[in-house]
Design goal:
It is a single chain. By secondary structure, the chain is of the alpha+beta class. It folds into two domains: 235 residues, YVTN repeat-like/Quinoprotein amine dehydrogenase (Methylamine Dehydrogenase, Chain H, 7 Propeller); 187 residues, 3-Layer(aba) Sandwich (Rossmann fold), CATH 3.40.50. Helices cover 18% and strands 30% of the residues. Strands 20-19-18-21-22-24-23 form a seven-stranded mixed β-sheet. The protein has a five-stranded antiparallel β-sheet with strand order 13-14-15-16-17, covered by helices on one side. Helix 7 packs across helix 8. The longest helix is centred in the middle third of the chain and has 17 residues. The chain is elongated and about 75 Å long.
Length: 439
């Protein structure tokens, strides 16, 4: 066994079993000699000594590399079942030894040795099947992809492919450490291109901030060592020099901007509120509450027994909301100092989490939504109002990092276990308004 995948949405481990020609799925809390909950095995599966795999928990699929083919099974498949898709044929250029799935951008990245061409990273659409050409091929002398050592990773928020490379020596155990490295490419790269960043024994360059001594390789470039460093680099890619909040301002400036009469009118609170169908006793999380434009009306809707959690990362804004609530004799608002990656709510039975022009300010949206989901009750909902990226007058048209598409958000929500339930036309072209629920 050279691979194991954890599905955090469904809390399951998926493991390839070479000698049994099988794919085993265990529950997340499995212990001891517990039997798998599902086994894919038999002649129809086309499995031959599977030793690596990847899982896409958003689209509920398992991907298995098989040399000159990639087999795709439904996550819940069991028994002697045929794959639902097979990627195979001379045009694919496959020599698959490992792969990774980007469910956000619907990409499949396959690594391995392409006969007569050395190691390559092949980029396909996630749903490709049959004899199709890859949409991108990374490889060649400049890439340094001499031998991909094993499992690699994709980090969708930054379109990053993180790969461990073992070197080209014919010695299987003692490879030249000068040729061993971990490299980062973009999913948009194509051709004989060098990695965007690398970490190696004799040089360590990662955004100018990682010291060589922290990433010294042993003379023996063992794949386990490379894999551990690859996973470490994935975490570094995720945090290195990335602003935690996009478009941030000073508190005083935020209050002046958020409380403008023309902005309050544009929120259309009187039209949004009835569509949320709040009732007394509900618990509401107002994410990115700002100056409290929605928090106070929410509190009145769920009174007397309900509660509103006004969440923000700015303590000054939270103080401002508390002052406004006190002036209006509203006692059922609790301010919550959230974090960049977690709302830090004090309860896990929230009925509604509400975003209005907020999600685009969060750097790692998918991780934040996953954290948020843990605070929402099984029947709870997420309401999201966002700017329409296709509207020519959108305020952030010159800052693409702050423009979100419905498809992107749908994938992030799905990764958190939520799916579109209702869509409302309240704002016309400038904004869209969707409520998501667990199915």
């Amino acid at each position: 066994m050279h691979s194991i995948a954890y599905d955090e949405i469904h809390d399951e481990f998926v493991v390839p079993q070479q000698f049994g020609q099988a794919i085993l799925t265990f529950r997340g809390g499995a212990d001891g000699e517990e039997v798998p909950v599902r086994v894919i095995q038999g002649s129809l599966t086309q499995l031959r000594n599977p030793d690596r795999l990847a899982i896409d928990p958003v689209h509920n699929e398992i991907f298995v590399p098989q040399g000159n083919a990639v087999l795709v099974f439904p996550r819940e498949a069991k028994g002697n079942v045929a794959p639902i898709r097979v990627l195979k044929g001379p045009d694919t250029q496959l020599g698959a030894s490992a792969l990774a799935v980007d469910p956000v951008h619907d990409l499949l990245i396959v690594g391995g040795n392409v006969r007569g061409r050395g190691s390559r990273l092949l980029i396909f659409n996630r749903t490709d099947e049959g004899n199709v050409k890859p949409k991108g091929v990374i490889g060649g002398p400049n890439s340094g992809l001499t031998q991909i050592s094993g499992p690699f990773a994709v980090y969708p928020p930054k379109n990053a492919i993180v790969v461990s490379v073992r070197g080209s020596s014919s010695e299987s155990n003692e490879m030249s450490s000068d040729e061993c490295f971990v490299g980062v490419w973009s999913t948009q790269d194509n051709g004989d291109v060098p990695p965007r960043w690398t970490i190696a024994r004799l040089k360590a360059k990662f955004l100018g901030s990682v010291k060589r001594k922290h990433f010294m390789f042993h003379q023996n470039c063992h794949s386990r060592t490379l894999f551990q460093i690859t996973m470490g680099l994935v975490m570094l890619v995720a945090v290195a020099e990335a602003p935690a909040q996009l478009g941030s301002r000073e508190t005083k400036e935020w209050i002046q901007n958020l409380d403008r009469p023309e902005r309050i009118a544009g929120l259309k609170i009187d039209k949004v509120l009835p569509l949320l169908k709040l009732k007394p006793g509900d618990k509401v999380a107002d994410i990115g509450a700002g100056a409290g434009a929605f928090s106070l009306p929410f509190a009145k809707e769920v009174a007397p027994s309900g509660k509103v959690y006004a969440v923000d990362i700015d303590a000054g804004l939270l103080d401002y909301i508390a002052q406004k609530a006190k002036k209006e004799n509203i006692a059922n608002i609790q301010t919550v100092k959230g974090e960049f990656s977690d709302p830090k709510l004090p309860t896990r039975d929230v009925d509604l989490a509400f975003f209005h022009d907020v999600l685009h300010h969060i750097e790692n949206r998918q991780a934040y939504l996953k954290a948020l989901a843990s605070y929402i009750k099984p029947t709870g909902r997420i309401a999201l109002i966002e700017m329409n990226r296709d509207d020519p007058k959108t305020p952030h048209r010159n800052n693409p990092d702050m423009l979100l598409s419905k498809d992107e958000v749908r994938n992030w929500m799905a990764a958190a276990g939520f799916y579109p339930e209702e869509e409302f036309d309240v704002f016309g072209s400038p904004k869209w308004f969707i409520i998501y629920t667990r199915h």
